[in-house]
């Protein structure tokens, strides 16, 4: 049996790890030229779906490394006044398991470390700079063609290639993406003695934190590792480079389209230097903490993200081409479900593939059952993320109240 995965994000790499553990031939094709060709987010919230899937696909020592380096429990939303960054609101953000309109209990993690850890065990399966152009389904499987002229064969093709999925456009052309109008300009700053001295980290704690600069919303979240990643790697996964080597703050501007100005053109393709310059302008009259965050930020970790959500579509007939994660159910980060949903998809799809490998189910039934869950839980998470947008507006009002009173 052979599986081709398009996309080396968290979901695609997790699926590759599951299949490698089951001795199933797998090939991962990633259009970027390297794993970290571009910044892709700094901090993720992992709940029982994500952590459970990671434990199931990683080795025992890698799972121990993951647990050792997880950040603080991440179960609150905190709003800071924009004038003095005092706490004006803090509430528990998590809810009971399975409740779609509440964030599930979990902990913060470095997306970079999790992605590197997943890739660590399947590096030999990843082909970088490989872009899918089209495919043809036939009785025995799928013929897949790539931009460099390469042709490959597989029993199953999996689109794990994110919100702009080439596989989705070919497989389900009606499954379009709606532009939410929200843009995130994100940065990453190491936690230094100077930053600790400001006291702002005590207010952030392990929470997802919001404040404002004028009428622009600011988001912040700290990643404070339980054990420093380099030390944990040396102890548990010798030879693994975690990339991140110290605690840090993920922060950025959550912008509406009308607030982009000249930045709107090619926002997601802007250089880190261009985005840093924009942040310098925005923070010129803001609380001094933001200048410190900017001055000490990692210079190559500024990036812009356009936020879209997948349009829910009716059930489709299962075939030898399927999807996972943002490729089919892209969502806003308001419920912290994106990474967790993708990892859950990978685990479920691996189970479906194994059931066909052992002869327990036909391809049609196994993929059909998987896609039923994909639609049910994935689109529910999309709806829940959209429901969270009005809360962002309420938090912005709270953060700016003193400035307008």
Automatic annotation (TrEMBL):
GO molecular function list: FAD binding; monooxygenase activity
Keyword Flavoprotein: yes
Signal peptide: none
Keywords (A to Z) from UniProt: FAD, Flavoprotein, Monooxygenase, Oxidoreductase
Superkingdom of this protein's organism: Bacteria
Pfam families associated with the record: FAD_binding_3
FAD-binding domain location: 2-169, 315-359
Protein name as catalogued: 2-polyprenyl-6-methoxyphenol hydroxylase
Organism encoding this protein: Streptoalloteichus hindustanus
């Amino acid at each position: 049996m052979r599986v081709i995965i398009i996309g080396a994000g968290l979901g695609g790499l997790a699926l590759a790890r599951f299949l490698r553990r089951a001795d199933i031939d797998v090939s991962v094709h990633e259009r970027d030229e390297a794993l970290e060709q571009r910044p892709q987010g700094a901090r993720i919230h992992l709940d029982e779906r994500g952590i459970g899937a990671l434990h199931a696909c990683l080795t025992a020592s890698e799972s121990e490394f993951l647990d050792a380096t997880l950040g603080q429990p991440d179960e609150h939303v905190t709003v800071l006044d924009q004038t003095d960054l005092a706490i004006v609101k803090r509430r528990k953000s998590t809810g009971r398991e399975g409740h779609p309109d509440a964030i599930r209990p979990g902990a913060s993690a470095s997306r970079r470390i999790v992605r590197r850890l997943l890739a660590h065990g399947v590096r030999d399966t990843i082909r970088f700079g490989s872009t899918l152009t089209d495919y043809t389904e036939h009785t025995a499987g799928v013929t897949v063609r790539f931009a460099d002229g390469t042709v490959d064969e597989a029993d199953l093709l999996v689109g794990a290639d994110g919100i702009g999925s080439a596989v989705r456009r070919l497989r389900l052309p009606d499954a379009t993406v709606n532009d939410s109008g929200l843009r995130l300009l994100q940065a990453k700053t190491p936690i230094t003695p100077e930053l600790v001295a400001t006291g702002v980290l005590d207010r952030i704690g392990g929470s997802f934190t919001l404040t404002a600069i004028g009428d622009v919303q600011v988001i912040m979240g700290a990643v404070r590792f339980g054990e420093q990643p380099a030390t944990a790697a040396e102890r548990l996964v010798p030879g693994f480079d975690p990339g991140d080597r110290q605690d840090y703050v993920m922060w950025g501007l959550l912008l509406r389209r009308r607030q982009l100005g000249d930045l709107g053109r090619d926002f997601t393709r802007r250089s880190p230097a261009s985005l840093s310059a924009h942040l310098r302008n925005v923070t010129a009259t803001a609380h001094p903490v933001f200048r410190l965050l900017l001055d000490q930020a990692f210079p190559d970790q500024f990036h812009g993200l356009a936020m879209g959500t997948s349009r829910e579509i009716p059930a489709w007939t299962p075939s030898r081409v399927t999807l996972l994660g943002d490729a089919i159910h892209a969502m806003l980060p308001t419920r912290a479900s994106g990474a967790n949903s993708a990892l859950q998809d990978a685990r479920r799809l691996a189970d479906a593939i194994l059931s066909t490998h052992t002869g327990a189910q036909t391809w049609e039934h196994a993929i059909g059952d998987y896609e039923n869950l994909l639609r049910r839980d994935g689109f529910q998470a999309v709806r829940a993320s959209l429901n969270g947008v009005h809360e962002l507006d309420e938090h912005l009002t709270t953060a700016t109240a003193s400035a307008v009173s």
